[in-house]
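Our preliminary data section would be incomplete without showing what the modeling component actually yields. Below, a chain of 273 amino acids is followed by its predicted structure, encoded as C-alpha cells that our downstream tools consume directly.
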Amino acid sequence: MPRKTINDIQVKTGIEKIICLTAYTAPIARLLDKHVDILLVGDSLGMVLYEYENTLPVTLDQMIEHTKAVMKSTSDACVIMDLPFGTYEESKEQAFSSALRSIKETNCAGIKLEGGSLIEDTVKHITQRGIPVMGHIGLQPQSIILDGGYKIKGRDKFEWKKYIDDSIALENAGAFAIVLEGMVEPLANEITNSIKIPTIGIGASAKCDGQILVTEDMLGLTNISPKFVKEYTNLRLPIEKAIKEYVSDVKSEKFPTNKHTYQMKPTIVKKEK
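Predicted structure:
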C-alpha cells in the first residue's frame, strides 16, 4: 500500500478518528507505522531523548536527522515534522526556507507550526508554495517563556474567541489540520465544530477528529507525564527486568553461550597414502 497522504487524513474528518503518535527513532517508528495515520516527529524529542528542560534548544538539523530516520523506517504512515523554535518566527521567508529544506531533505509529508492568527500570513505563504502545514494552538510549548509555564487555555470563557479566531485563521491560510493542546474540553469542542479541517487533540477533547500522544509517555518510558496522558503500559518494568537478567548472566558466565559465540572450523586431517 502507498504511504498515507494529507488527503487521506482530511477525508476522515467527522467520519473516522485520526490516530497520531510521535516518533523520533527508527525502532519506534517501525513499530507504530502500520497502526497510525500520522507519525509526528515533534520537537518534544528534545525533552524525551536529550533531557532538555523544554523544546526551545532543539535545532532544525536535529529535527531533520530524526525525521530522516523515521521516513527510512516506515512505509505507511503520513509523517509530519515540527519546525523548531527560532526557525520560522523572523519572517515568512525564513519560515518557507526552513520548511523547504525540511521537505527536500526528509521527504516528509508536511510541517507543523505553533501559533494562530499571528502566523496566518506565514502559513499562507508556505501552503501557497506547495508545502502542507499543520497548525498548533492552545498550549504552545515553544511559548513557555512568554506564558510563564505550561498553562491550560480557556478556563476563562473570555479567552475562547481568540482561539476560535486562531483556528479559523489557520484554516483560511490553508492549514490541513490543527493540533489543539492543553485547553478545556468545551473550547476544543467549539473549535472542532467551527472549522472544516480536522482537529487533533492532546489534552483537549475526545470529540476532536483525532488524538495524539508522545509515544514514550503512553508506554511508561518517561519520568513525568502530564494529566492528559494515559499510560497504556509500563515498559520500564520489563526493560529493567531484562537488564538485571543480562547483568546476572554476564557475572555468572551464563552469557554468552556456544549459541552466541563463534567457533573455529574443525581441522580436517588428510590420511597419508
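The chain has eleven helices and eight strands. The first helix runs from residue 6 to 10. Preliminary results of this kind motivate Aim 1 of the renewal.
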